[in-house]
Amino acid sequence: MSESFVKWGILALLTGSAVGLVSSLFHLALKETAVIRERYPLVILSLPVCGLLIVALYKLLKLTHDKGTNMVLMAVRDGEKMTWRNTVSIFAGSVLTHIGGGSAGREGAALQIGGSIGSQIGLWLKLGSQDCRMLTMCGMSAGFSALFGTPVAAAFFSMEVISVGIMHYSALVPCIISALTGLAISSRFGVSAEKHEILFGTVDYMLYLKVLLIAVCCAVLSIVFCFVLKNASRFYRIFIRSPYLRIAFGGAAVVILTFICGTHDYNGTGAEVISRAFEQTASWEEFALKLLFTALTLGAGFKGGEIMPVFFIGSTFGSAFAPLLGLDSSLGAAIGLSCLFCGVTNCPVTAVFLCAELFGAAHLPVYLLACGVSYMLSGYAGLYSEQKILYSKLEPKYIDKKIGK
Fold first, then answer.
1. Structure pTM?
2. What is the CATH number of the domain that holds 266?
3. Engineered SS bond to 135: which of 10, 111, 122, 379, CB 3.0-4.6 Å?
4. What is the DSSP pairing of strand 163-164 with strand 388-391?
5. CA geometry: angle at 377 spanning 281 and 289, to 5°?
6. What would the pLDDT profile of 257-290 be if each residue is shown by its tens digit?
7. How far apart are CA 91 and CA 21, in angstroms?
8. Which domain holds residue 386?
9. What φ, ψ does residue 206 adopt, rounded to 5°?
10. CA-to-CA distance for 369 and 144, rounded, in angstroms?
């Protein structure tokens, strides 16, 4: 037992260090893309060209059938191999997407970068299949933690997201060591969690009822979000068979829509809009437009993550809805962000820890109720088609169901 602890302590530190360094470079690269877009707004016209470069890069690296974040889930559950090619492709592809102003996040990229580095380290060290899977989970935790600054949520996310209903507790210590190591390194590069002050007012039964109502709406919105993203990709593939034409058309659509809206709020991660939703009431059209921009971007084949768009959509929806119930916009934004994240990832434990790390643990029962309701009512939709729901959301019954089936 002591040998296993030492072994995984060393491997987790090694993986966390490697992932933390690469993720920090990734963070700096995305930060620079935001500066470039702000300084040269017309760089958005390059988005179709950036898309063509992404397709060419994936073809060059022989990843034309890349499954994105689903590949990480398959690496943990089924032992699929990920290598440095996955790291290079998602790193470069995400940077190109963000330079051109595509609407995408960074956590999907972080999971792929971390998972592929962990898997590659396992292959280099000639470890067994089970050990490689564990290292992939360590890499996922380190990547998530390094970019978001939330090590507890990061550690639990990699254990919870693969097969909903069970936890891979054997990975708990390695994952938290990797998450803390990744965060320690990325913090040296200025990465930290975006913490927000939440105004609750009087905590009574009426507050719980109002929060419950927001959670119900977010559960429905999570189903809509997953449906739109899934069918956007199908729509593109049905009508435009060539991946080059598909991504160029999607890029052009995002550019045109940006000029029609007259704002760059929906390009990139939208982190500024998320922060604004906690400070003032968001407009109703913001969450709907972000959903449209994200579907056009990711459906066409651009690279990046879905969680930052989820944070954007959830926080702006909650911020707009909360004042109608007499609640502060900051509380609505917090509930919307966490509930939509919970609904699309089917990870209630991670969502609650995320709330504690981003908003504080003083009112944890409120967040627990909201995330529980969102998880229960979001059905069997989800962002990741390779995710499995092993136990029913409504009764203690083993169902072993894949997302969307």
1. 0.94
2. 1.10.3080.10
3. 122
4. parallel
5. 40
6. 999 999 999 999 999 999 999 999 999 999 999 9
7. 13
8. 205-402
9. -65, -40
10. 25
